[in-house]
Write the structure tokens for this entry.
Amino acid sequence: MTPNPIVTLSFFRFSGPGARMWAFAMMGLARGAIARVPDIGFWKLCGSGTGEGFTPLPNTSVYAILASWPDEATARARTGTSAPFARYRQRAAEDWTVFLNTTSARGAWSGRSPFHANPGPQRGPLAALTRATVKPRVALRFWRRVPDISRMIGADRNVAFKIGIGEVPLLHQITFSIWPDAGAMAGFARTNGPHAAAIRAVRDGNWFSEELYARFAILGDSGTWGGVSPLAKLDVPS
């Protein structure tokens, strides 16, 4: 399937040992069912880290499904009613899905370019996703820098939502964040601090074997996270 412009990120929070064990098992068992969902393009099952997700320690209560679709109507229909998503939703204590239109993307994910950019003027709220494969020989050095970055982004009041997820603990890291505008996001990225220092270390040491960076316009969402929509303060329709 040709890479599609509409991307969804669905987050599921599980409570209780039974539900958490089920969600962990689905990291392997759900793959066939998700691959068979009609109209689905690129997709990934992800776990998360503790705290806000920006740690190598797994959080067994939060999981995510990233997927691409041919259009927004299809994305809403499939994430809302298809069997795998419905099963996750039935078991979860809470779930939230955000609908995204890719405005820029560069790099590769598992050897592919999964997001088809629909470029245009970037005004208003946006989401940013980074995905990297960390070289095993530098994994410990990389993760030593992460707590400082996590504290920095957690203290930034501009961030409407942020989480760290991944496919393989320690070696595959995905960051996803939502910002009120491009200026606020650029200000965080360029401020001289832990984040800027980490970027310099990554570039100087060639720490990643694969990287991808993408930005998205936010089309809307469904569900809640922490009892509310993370988009509520951004003037974005549901």
About this structure: The first strand starts at residue 6 and ends at 13. The mean pLDDT is 83. Residues 6-221 form a domain with the Alpha-Beta Plaits fold (CATH 3.30.70.100). The radius of gyration is 17 Å.
